[in-house]
Specification:
The structure holds 2 protein chains of 2 kinds.
Chain A lengths: L3 H21 L7 E7 L4 H12 L3 E3 L9 H7 L4 E5 L3 H8 L1 E9 L3 H23 L7 E9 L7 H31 L1 H7 L4 H29 L9 H25 L3 H18 L12 H7 L3 H15 L7 H26 L1
Chain B lengths: L4 E12 L2 E12 L3 E6 L5 H8 L7 E6 L2 E2 L4 H7 E4 L11 H11 L4 H14 L15 H12 L6 E5 L7 H16 L3 E6 L2 H6 L2 E6 L2 E6 L1 H7 L5 H9 L6
Parallel strand pairs in B: 3-8, 3-9, 6-7, 7-8
Antiparallel strand pairs in B: 1-2, 1-4, 4-5, 9-10
Classes of the chains: A alpha/beta, B alpha/beta.
């Protein structure tokens, strides 16, 4: 019972897991930013708009008038969907009994995209039910979905970037922390430190192989994604590689930090799994979109480095964004790296003096 | 620094908050001497040793190791010492020779030199046929001997041995001490901590640490005389537990 660390992990793990899974895994959407492009400006288009606004699922973001502009707002990440009511919608609906709506959806996250499409269909259908109220023959509104970035809603668009970030976390952070604590456990670390090598050299020597390994693996996943699952890299490849390198360094810094606060392999493994792997899979937006999580989890997700990396890597690969769109995320990753490096050095110094 | 002095320490202390792990110890070790560093568990031996090896920064006091200042020249100290820790310092998934090449390489030794040196050293031990053996498959006693060989492969001025014979059978311990003697004859200073009082008798001089302080210092014969004891066990008990009747 005095081994409170293990106890805490054993008791805390199921609680944390059930909370994470319960809240993070939700197939609901809430307050998704959309734009309503009303080119018709008729009674019906306004009614549909009200109906959509009245649901809690959407909130209107920027005003857009030209459908050509929609993609640029997707790229900036300001909206996820645009509902376009074309000119002549009301006329066609009344005269021919058949109107057409166009929905443009950012499908870089295929799960959310299909959810959005379903929700809109349902709202329009319920409007139509009220509208018809026994009218014969019934009026009909067709909702045409246009999926940008990932027209076939391929899951690979989601899991290739996700897998890359998980692998980098796994190899860089977990393996680094375990291998350094192993040297501590074995006693070889002490001997290494008694040699003319400086502590920095020792740590670098431990870390560089994992850096190369993680980078190699990430490139393999990237190539497999490209050739087997047709996941494109729409943006700049050198930029993508540079950002991947940055994320690996962030993960390594995390791994070094973990190994500086513990001296047993077991604890290092536990911390890596619980503190890094789970959040990386569940809270980063890899499987479940961050926007759909409850607020507390959204807040927590901000301290998960993988969340920022996923924004970057998805931006480059799928949306073809340049550095201008995610210099903030890049700076955040840099900040994480610096933070953990400084913290590790401090910890290390305390131990030495 | 005097010509024949290898380690010189005065009033060296290491405090952790209010706890004085090492409290103003003063001693010196001559060149080629086998210096036993004795004390009960937790008396501060390992802490003192780590300060001398440049692994820990002292709180106060002065000291030189191999002529280098323990505050400012820990890098030079590290180049001139060998260190063997209580735990295993060998990589289990490397062979004996690979371990040697790895550690020797850190000291800038060439692969060829390491190979020759290792072969001669292991030949003396009658062990040269095991160069390519994985360390994991060796018995404990041999691992210990190889650790020691490793600790002085780069001909250091001083080797620090932190409880090198823990858990080893008496015969192997004798062998081990023969290796220590051989190294000392070659001019290497040996600084060794131990719990075994019979090993203390093998040392040229010993110091006895109690609660962070050195309470006894001298050759085994001097100490026995000073504390009116017939063997080192008695000396140790009198020092560590002054209130107990032996």
């Amino acid at each position: 019972m005095r081994d409170w660390q293990t106890l805490l992990i054993l008791i805390g793990m199921p609680v944390a897991q059930i909370l994470l899974f319960g809240f993070a895994i939700s197939n609901e959407i809430r307050e998704v930013s959309i734009s309503f492009v009303d080119q018709d400006n008729s009674r019906y288009s306004r009614e549909i708009r009200q109906k959509i606004d009245a649901s809690n699922y959407f909130k209107e973001g920027v005003e857009i008038y030209d459908t050509q502009e929609v993609e640029s707002y997707f790229r900036k990440g300001e909206i996820k969907m645009a509902i376009v009511v074309p000119e002549g919608f009301a006329e066609q609906l009344v005269n021919e009994g058949n109107g057409q709506l166009q929905v443009i959806i950012d499908a870089s996250d295929p799960n959310t995209a299909s959810l959005l499409s379903n929700y809109i269909q349902a709202i329009v259908q319920s409007y139509l039910d009220e509208f018809n109220r026994g009218a014969k023959p019934p009026f009909f509104i067709e909702v045409r979905s246009e999926l940008v970035y990932n027209p076939e809603l391929k899951g690979a668009y989601l899991f290739v970037p996700g897998t890359i970030s998980v692998i980098m976390m796994l190899i860089s952070a977990m393996m680094t922390s375990i291998s350094i604590t192993r040297e501590k456990e074995l006693g070889t670390m002490e001997v290494l430190l008694a040699t003319p090598m400086s502590p920095v050299q020792v740590v670098l020597a431990k870390v560089v192989p994992y850096l190369l390994l993680a980078f190699f693996n990430a490139v393999v996943v990237l190539l497999m994604g490209y050739f087997i699952f047709d996941v494109p890299v729409n943006g700049s490849v050198p930029l993508l590689l540079a950002e991947m390198l940055l994320f690996i360094v962030t993960s390594l810094a995390l791994g070094i930090f973990i190994s500086s606060i513990t001296s047993s392999q077991q604890v290092a493994l536990m911390i890596s799994l619980m503190g890094l792997m789970l959040p990386t899979i569940l809270l980063s937006g890899f499987i479940f979109p961050v926007e759909n999580m409850p607020l507390p989890l959204q807040v927590i997700s901000n301290i998960v480095p993988a969340k920022w990396f996923l924004l970057i890597i998805k931006g480059i690969m799928i949306k073809g964004q340049g550095i201008a769109f995610f210099w903030k995320e890049t700076l955040i990753l840099l900040g994480f790296t610096l933070f953990f490096v400084v913290l590790s050095i401090k910890k290390f110094k305390i131990r030495l003096s | 620094m005097k010509e024949n002095i290898s380690i010189e320490v005065s009033n060296l202390s290491k405090h952790y908050g209010k706890f004085k792990a090492v409290d103003e110890i003063t001693f010196d070790v001559k060149k080629g001497e086998i210096f036993g560093f004795l004390g009960a568990n937790g008396a501060g031996k390992s802490t003192a040793m780590k300060m001398l090896c440049g692994l820990l920064g002292p709180t106060s006091g002065e000291g030189t190791v191999a002529g280098f200042d323990i505050y400012k020249q820990s890098e030079q100290i590290k180049k001139n010492i060998g260190y063997m820790s209580q735990k295993f310092s060998l990589y289990n998934d490397l062979t004996v020779l690979e371990n040697m090449i790895f550690y020797g390489g850190i000291y800038g030794l060439s692969r060829k030199y390491i190979k020759e040196k290792t072969t001669t050293l292991l030949k003396e031990l009658g062990f040269d046929d095991k160069l390519g053996t994985m360390v994991s498959s060796l018995p404990l006693g041999w691992k210990q001997k190889i650790s020691f060989t490793l600790a002085h492969i780069h001909n250091p001025a001083i080797v620090f041995l932190d409880e090198p014979t823990g858990g080893v059978d008496p015969v192997t311990r004798r062998d081990f001490w023969e290796m220590i003697y051989k190294a000392a004859e070659g001019g290497t200073t040996v600084f060794v901590t131990t719990h075994y009082m019979d090993e203390a008798e093998y040392c040229d001089r010993i110091s006895m640490m109690v609660d962070g302080q050195i309470h006894g210092l001298g050759s085994p014969a001097e100490l026995k005389k000073q504390f009116e004891s017939t063997n080192m066990d008695e000396v140790f008990i009198k020092l560590a537990r002054p209130n107990e009747k032996v």
